[in-house]
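Journal club prep — side note

Before the paper discussion, L.F. wants everyone to see what a predicted structure for a comparable chain looks like in token form. Sequence:
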Amino acid sequence: MKIFPSLILFLLVASTFLAAAQQPATAWEAKIKYFVTCKGIDNSKRPPVPVGVTDSFSTTDETVHILLHLENVKGPIKVTFKVFDPGGELFGQRDSGWDKGDYKWIVYPASINVANIKDRPGEWTVEAYADGQLLQTLKFMLSPPGPPPVPKLEVLSLTQTPAEGEPLYLGGTLTIKLKLRNSGGALAEGVLLTFEDITPAEGLAVVKASPAKNLAPNEDGEWILEVKANKPGKYAAVMRLYLAGEKVDELPWTIVVSPPKLVIVDATQTPAKGEPFYVGDTATLKYFLKNEGEAVARSVEIDVELPEGLKLVEATAAKDLPPGAVGEWTVKIKAEKEGEYEAAVALYSMGVKIDEGTLPVTVSSRPVSNLTLIAGILGIVAAVAVVVALVRRRGKPAPAEAPPPPAPREVKRFCANCGAEVPADATYCPNCGAPQ
């Protein structure tokens, strides 16, 4: 067969022209910002951004999204994605087509429908090429659905005030704080902290408790319990943690409630000891108490039980005593009957007896004084004299009544100068003016 040189030249030129039309004449340039798999793509942003970046997918997911972001692109450039299954077999590929200009950024998306690959769980591979040159490789795991996510409560801290080993005094409050974190994958609903099974049943009271509340995954929360000490003694209780009404944990608790450390630093009484206390008198007792504890002593009072013959006139009302403070309590007792008595004295805090003792009281009749005796004798003598005088007067006749004195005579005065009559008390003559 004869081949014309001109035809061969034409074919060579045509082949060169077709190759130039299919491939760029210059090399591309670009910088990879990221190459990821994700749950979705937000196309409302410029450039679009991945949502829920992850390399782990479940066969219950709908789509595996692939996103390649290039910066400072100088074309022409064509991007190709190749997807390989866990066995290394090519599952499919996607070409972007040619981008021939220069760009600040270009985003290349691709997606895989999970329904088409769910029967091939395992590690998948995605390769990104530019003009046939491998840019980057990434892998993602496709797994069958596992058990549903559940909440998981993790204790971050557990504190109490007063601290462990420190005394809890009568009237004080034990405060318990529990901080939790839900480190699980589901909402923790109705998380509740309680203080139960208090033994003995009376003496402690829960006065404050945080209500049940929900805790989202990776969220922290705090629960508070406040327990009031109403009676000294040793108590046992159980702190329980509930989730959606079901008990998930419990912790035994021991509480010792101590009486307040009240000390009598001084006591006085009037009349003083050894001095007489007479019927009708009032004795004043003063007690000075100091709180040597570390908490407020609540409702401190001194109570006196008196036998018949003594009467309580006044007593200081119950009051609080701060730590380190000294307070005064006064009791006044009136003596109503002579005798030897014994009064019961008790120290109370919040109605609980802290200490007690007895107070001997001697009440005497008031003695008669010398002045009173002399006054009594003089009174008797005077009474006798009056009686004697009356007896003597009964034996004598009554004296005659004396005649009335004669009426005074009227005296007239005359002026020595002019002879005119002048009044008896005149100093000057009303007629001539001469002195009288």
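L.F.'s comment for the group: The longest strand covers residues 29-42. Keep this in mind when we get to the figures.
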